Amino acid sequence: MKMIDIIRIAIGNLSRNRLRTLLTISGVVVGVGAIVFLVSLGFGLQKLALEKIVNLEALKVITVSPGSKLDVFLNSQTAQEFQNIENVEAVSPVKRSVANINIGDAKTEQVMYGVKPEFLALENIKITRGTALSGKNENEAVVSKEVVTNLGLKQDILNKSITVRTIGADSKNIENMTIKVVGISDEKGVYVPYDTIKDGEDNLSSVKVKVSDKQYVPNVKKSIESLGFNTSVIKDQSASVNQIFYIIKIVLGGFGMIAFFVAAIGIFNTMTISLLERTHEIGVMKAIGGYDKNIAMIFITESSLIGLFGGIFGLTAGWLGGVALTSIINLLATQSGGEAVSLFNIPLYFSLGTVFFSCFISTVAGIWPARRAAKLNPLEALRYE
Fold first, then answer.
1. Are 349 and 318 members of one domain?
2. Which residues contact 288 (CB under 8 A, 6 or more apart)?
3. pLDDT for 36-78, tens place per residue?
4. Is position 152 within any domain?
5. Is residue 373 exposed (0-12), middle (13-18) or buried (19+ Cβ within 10 Å)?
6. Partners of 94 in beta bridges
7. Cystine design at 205: which of 96, 152, 170, 289 (Cβ 3.0–4.6 Å)?
8. Domain boundary residue, one of 204, 228, 252
9. What would the pLDDT profile of 130-143 be if each residue is shown by its tens digit?
10. Cα separation of 288 and 285, whole Å?
């Protein structure tokens, strides 16, 4: 018997019991849809996280922080030493302070960073409104949307003056100043020109070192570490993010697998009932010369088709569920002043793998009923009613 004939017979058998076939496929759709929905959420969040921390320029940036040695300090002098390292293109020191921000009667406490103008570009900090720091005026600031929210402001804070009370690292160097808000960003904190934060001890919280080409990053990183400082690069962070989301996707996929294996039990039950209902038919096929392997292939093909259609429709259902949830969340986000994002991502290899896995598991679920059908005694099968 040709394979096309086996497929034609299998489709005909499934069509004769449409309701049962539909319910069995629906079980597979629920299982596959749950897997696609949950795992694609993991893929989407992973992509979103990596987009926030990774870009081509960021791969050339090394973040330097104080080391464990008590006699090694991160200050302006050491920042200048970094500039003298071979293949270093730019050095951007960062001061850090706690700031109490007032505008009218509204108050909030935020972390304030004293940075050079190029720092915002090195950190890929996007200005959603207004402009970046010009570096020409100490009394300017870029604030986050969180600051605006915490101040409870309904009016626009852009180009308005805020009162800032900074507290130095020693908790003694306290200074009050009036600063004009020139830009608003999505990042947390307040960014002001480097010289705005005056710390008598000349302590830096970190230094951003940009290398001329990413191929020199390992060598520059090693040179800085030899001076006694800790370093980190985006590549290390992205590797950690990928590892975390790998675990998250396994956990989410595990929940979906529960529903899928319940569907596989349903396929096994459907094929077993089909075997009992068609025992007489199998006897007739054997009596007129049907081979055992052909009968087994008919049953296996039926279960495979259930898995195939269930996988395709389940993939579609999971994708539609992700689109619907993303639309709802983005609608709420944009209404509250947030940014629309894509929470779900379904790579092509995952889509094809899901359909293949659905078909494979369904085929496995149909093997035992198929073998049982092939081994039926034709005389007993003909007498079966």
1. yes
2. none
3. 998 888 888 888 777 766 555 667 788 888 877 767 788 888 8
4. yes
5. buried
6. 115, 206
7. 96
8. 228
9. 888 877 777 888 88
10. 5
